[in-house]
């Protein structure tokens, strides 16, 4: 697809992978609406990269409604949905609690699915659209104390496969990106960006993959791609 003048909704756009991806897509000529829960951080990011900010929580129905209203009123349509917003909770099997599952799944699975449902209505009307789900290497292989987070990403991977089969007849491309460890604010309760480490992935690498996947001619698409650091040790 052509990114110039493309209308893009990107969730979780105030920090890390979301912010850097929005920056790269805006530089390519796209019009990008970013969402997040922290208004101050979102406003700061939008001013820095030239995005349209919408303060909304994807984990709540009213947040999804607010996002879609902004799509109509501020974007004037939609060509791409990038489901980037995600949270994590980590605990051993003996210590995990049901409310942790509810908290993570409300964002990583339930809210994401309901937002995508609304976006697909627009895509079907125009017989085209692009969905990029940001999962994780944790959605391919679990890890110690990762029952809650990894299972939410396994669920996202499963949903992505279902949507891919369901939506191909409507010329809607559904893609999955699995980043390995990236030096961002993810997992930091204070939401402060971690310092970049020389050998580990940066948000820049993931943004590059997303941009490249979107730029492929519409007759083809990349179903799934995993991004690992070459030598993180």
From TrEMBL:
CDD domains cross-referenced by the UniProt entry: SDR_c
The record, for InterPro entries, names:
NAD(P)-bd_dom_sf, Sc_DH/Rdtase_CS, SDR_fam
- Cite the entry's keywords alphabetically: Oxidoreductase
Superkingdom is: Bacteria
Pfam families, A to Z:
adh_short
The record's family statement is: Belongs to the short-chain dehydrogenases/reductases (SDR) family.
Recorded protein name is SDR family oxidoreductase
| Organism classification | Bacteria, Pseudomonadati, Bacteroidota, Cytophagia, Cytophagales
């Amino acid at each position: 697809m052509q990114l110039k003048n493309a209308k893009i909704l990107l969730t979780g756009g105030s920090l890390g992978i979301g912010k850097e991806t929005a920056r790269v897509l805006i530089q390519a000529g796209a019009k990008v609406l970013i969402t997040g829960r922290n208004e101050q951080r979102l406003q700061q990011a939008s001013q820095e990269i030239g995005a349209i900010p919408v303060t909304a929580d994807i984990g709540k129905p009213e947040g999804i409604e607010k996002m879609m209203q902004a799509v109509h009123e501020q974007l004037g349509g939609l060509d791409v949905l990038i489901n980037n917003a995600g949270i994590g909770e980590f605990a051993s099997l003996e210590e995990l609690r049901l409310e942790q599952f509810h908290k993570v799944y409300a964002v990583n699975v339930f809210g994401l699915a309901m937002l995508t449902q609304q976006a697909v209505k627009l895509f079907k009307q125009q017989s085209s659209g692009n969905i990029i789900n940001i999962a994780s290497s944790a959605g391919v292989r679990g890890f110690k104390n990762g029952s809650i987070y990894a299972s939410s990403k396994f669920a996202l991977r499963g949903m992505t496969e279902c949507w891919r089969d369901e939506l191909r007849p409507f010329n809607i491309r559904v893609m999955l990106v699995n980043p390995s460890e990236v030096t961002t604010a993810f997992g930091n309760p204070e939401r402060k960006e971690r310092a970049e480490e020389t050998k580990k992935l940066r948000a820049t690498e993931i943004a590059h993959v997303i941009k490249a996947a979107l730029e492929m001619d519409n007759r083809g698409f990349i179903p799934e791609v995993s991004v690992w650091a070459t030598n993180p040790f």
